[in-house]
């Protein structure tokens, strides 16, 4: 084991300051004794660059890099003459481009898989949910009456391909956007064409000497982000539902205690569900279960982390071991016999921690190799080939476990898997359900509004703390909370995803939850499943009584502990769709500049949503609730 020498400069921060997650605290403590450090320690020992944090620097050409002064933002321009607004807008645009690229590329992988399943070249996967297939097809105007699933699927594939490749026109899911919202997009020229085109254009426009008007750059940010939310992410969600099943509520265990000392523990971490789906098949092979037993294990235990975990948590009830800031911590248990990853949010730091505990870290995706990890490539055409090999490796690691095993005994049971379809069914009380009861409860004031609380955890703030306190404050004020990604796992660990948590809600929301038997906090899935929130919002508009566009709804969104560029893209597509969206931790902008004013005020007057920023959970809640109340007033709901 490689023992880290502590320098005097390394500050030993109390673990309680790093995270409110008890299991993660225990493991950071163990890690310290074992001489292993984590992103928490590295964050504590590396101050964020203040100029970068304000987005006040530009390195888009080699006359620079140029640094401007956030304290006097208009006192100086770059060598080319670029103003602070141009520089910040260009930086922001490239974050949107990167985030949107991640989600759209993920969606494209799902579409590639769908194509090969439909044309019969892949047999290991199949269409599991034909009802969903028909519903998605109908939503973009494909005739389903009297046609076979295969015929519908072929046409759906062809239509959805344009989500990526359309050089002109509008992406297919623009047909799902409420008419008034779409009208606003058309007026401002932000209806996306194919994502490839939008991302290419953003990269071009942010090159040195091209788009140097921050409002015009922001337009392309909106168009690109919308190509993520209503494009790539939505395709990822819908195709995954069609192939692997649409989620409905399952009661499921979350937290590090889902690991089992006497079993072969396999963790899947990353984003694209195909790897995990194949792993579920592999671990259920009787020959492997026998082999595990022969190696002295009681069985094979499969658990997920981050968004990979969220995908199968909501679809199949597979246990979830923790969110983004617990991925190093989970390895410190010594109990993980293999961790297999695909793409996104995979810290390079995992390599070192895995090495310390003799846990094989396996990369599986050609787009994501990590120095020091073992690569076993996953291929949709022979999925089991790689997942079988991973299982065999895990069994052998179990047999030769050398690391001392210490598993935190924390397990929380919650209900997850509230797809938009299920919310419809649950509230309507039948398969021909509708959002009418939700709208009615908002109109009569039992539910004050709806909030989406989503996104990552970030070692710059105490893990899970902001998510949990914010959500508690929202439900206490009768705001129904929808969740995805790592935020959903934070609340699950805090026990708020159970129907019993209704007692923490205000009287109105509590009554609704108790009548329906639902938790006040509804877990919808992974980050790409934020598209489910867009669909839910569109349904609320369509049902009526809450205005004509998404911007009229008494709703708000938040990513209180975000860390990724994907979060910026998500935030911006919610803003462009009409939602007030508050981010925590830090915001890459100089306050008081014109670009700041544009994102935080002007976009709303143009008919979009707008950005907000606050760090403390109480303050974030106040901003969101005030906005919800403002929208209620405008709708004449509260006289
Ligand atoms: Ni896609 S993007 S840390 S795993 S939510 Fe989790 Fe979610 Fe952020 Fe990553
Ligand atoms: Fe500096 Fe302009 Fe080059 Fe940016 S593009 S590095 S501001 S000279």
Characterization of the model:
The structure is a single chain. With 639 residues, the chain is an alpha/beta fold. The chain has three domains: 84-244, Substrate Binding Domain Of Dnak, Chain:A, Domain 2, CATH 1.20.1270; 256-399, Rossmann fold (3-Layer(aba) Sandwich); 414-634, Rossmann fold (3-Layer(aba) Sandwich). Strands 6-5-4-7-8-9 form a six-stranded parallel beta sheet. Strands 13-12-11-14-15-16 form a six-stranded parallel beta sheet, with helices on both faces. Helix 5 (84-118) packs across helix 23 (565-577), helix 10 (214-244) packs across helix 22 (530-543) and helix 10 crosses helix 23. Fe(4)-Ni(1)-S(4) cluster, oxidized binds at residues 271, 306-307, 323-324, 345, 455-456, 485-486, 526-527, 564, 566.
Quick structural gist:
The chain is an alpha/beta fold.
Give short descriptive properties of this protein.
single chain; six-stranded parallel sheet; Rossmann fold; binds Fe(4)-Ni(1)-S(4) cluster, oxidized; 3 domains; Substrate Binding Domain Of Dnak, Chain:A, Domain 2; 639 residues; alpha/beta; binds iron/sulfur cluster
């Amino acid at each position: 084991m490689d023992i880290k020498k502590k320098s005097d400069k390394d500050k030993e921060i109390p673990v309680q300051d790093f995270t409110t997650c008890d299991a993660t605290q225990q493991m950071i403590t163990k890690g310290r004794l074992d001489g292993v450090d984590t992103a928490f320690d590295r964050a504590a020992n590396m101050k964020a660059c203040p100029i970068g944090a304000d987005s006040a620097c530009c390195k888009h050409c080699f006359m620079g890099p140029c640094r401007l002064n956030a304290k006097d933002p208009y006192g100086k321009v770059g060598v080319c003459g670029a103003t602070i607004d141009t520089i910040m807008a260009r930086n922001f645009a490239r974050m949107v481009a990167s985030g949107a690229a991640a989600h759209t590329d993920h969606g494209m992988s799902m579409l590639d898989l769908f194509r090969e399943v439909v044309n019969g070249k892949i047999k290991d996967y199949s269409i599991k949910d034909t009802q969903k297939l028909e519903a998605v097809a109908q939503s973009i105007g494909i005739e389903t009456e009297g046609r076979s699933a295969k015929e519908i699927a072929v046409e759906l594939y062809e239509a959805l391909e344009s989500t990526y490749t359309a050089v002109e026109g509008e992406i297919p899911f623009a047909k799902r956007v409420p008419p008034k919202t779409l009208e606003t997009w058309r007026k401002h020229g932000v209806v996306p064409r194919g994502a490839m085109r939008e991302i290419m254009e953003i990269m071009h426009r942010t090159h040195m000497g091209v788009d140097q008007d921050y409002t015009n750059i922001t337009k392309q940010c909106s168009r690109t982000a919308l190509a993520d939310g209503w494009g790539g992410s939505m395709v990822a969600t819908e195709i995954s539902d069609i192939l692997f099943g649409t989620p409905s509520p399952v009661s499921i265990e979350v937290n590090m205690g889902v690991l089992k000392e006497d079993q072969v523990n396999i963790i899947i971490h990353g984003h694209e569900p195909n790897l995990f789906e194949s792993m579920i098949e592999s671990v259920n092979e009787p020959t492997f279960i026998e082999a595990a037993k022969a190696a002295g294990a009681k069985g094979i235990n499969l658990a997920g982390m981050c968004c990979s975990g969220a995908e199968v948590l909501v679809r199949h009830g597979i246990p979830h071991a923790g969110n983004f800031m617990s991925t190093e911590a989970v390895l410190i248990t010594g109990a993980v016999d293999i961790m297999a990853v695909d793409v996104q949010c995979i810290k390079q730091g995992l390599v070192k921690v895995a090495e310390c505990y003799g846990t094989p870290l396996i990369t599986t995706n050609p787009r994501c190799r990590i120095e020091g990890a073992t690569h076993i490539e996953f291929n949709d055409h022979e999925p089991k080939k790689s997942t079988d090999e991973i299982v065999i490796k895990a069994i052998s690691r179990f047999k030769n476990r050398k690391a001392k095993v210490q598993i935190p005994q924390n397990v929380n049971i919650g209900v997850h898997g509230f797809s938009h379809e299920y919310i419809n069914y649950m509230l309507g009380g039948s398969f021909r359900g509708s959002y009418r009861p939700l709208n009615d409860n908002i109109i009569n004031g039992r539910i004050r509004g709806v909030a989406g609380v989503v996104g990552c955890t970030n070692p710059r703030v105490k893990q899970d703390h902001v998510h949990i306190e914010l959500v508690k404050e929202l439900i206490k004020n009768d705001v129904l909370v929808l969740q995805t990604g790592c935020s959903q796992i934070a609340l699950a660990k805090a026990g708020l995803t159970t129907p019993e948590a209704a007692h923490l809600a205000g009287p109105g929301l509590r009554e609704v939850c108790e009548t329906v038997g639902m938790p006040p906090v509804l877990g919808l899935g992974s980050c790409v499943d934020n598209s489910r929130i867009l669909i839910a919002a569109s349904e609320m508009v369509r049902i009526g009584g809450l205005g004509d566009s998404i911007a009229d709804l008494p709703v708000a969104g938040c990513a209180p502990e975000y860390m990724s560029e994907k979060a910026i893209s998500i935030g911006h597509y919610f803003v462009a769709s009409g939602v007030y969206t508050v981010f925590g931790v830090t915001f890459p902008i100089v306050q008081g500049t014109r670009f700041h004013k544009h994102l935080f005020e002007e976009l709303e007057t143009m008919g979009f949503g707008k950005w907000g920023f606050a760090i403390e959970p109480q303050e974030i809640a106040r901003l969101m609730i005030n906005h919800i109340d403002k929208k209620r007033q405008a709708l004449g709901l509260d006289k």
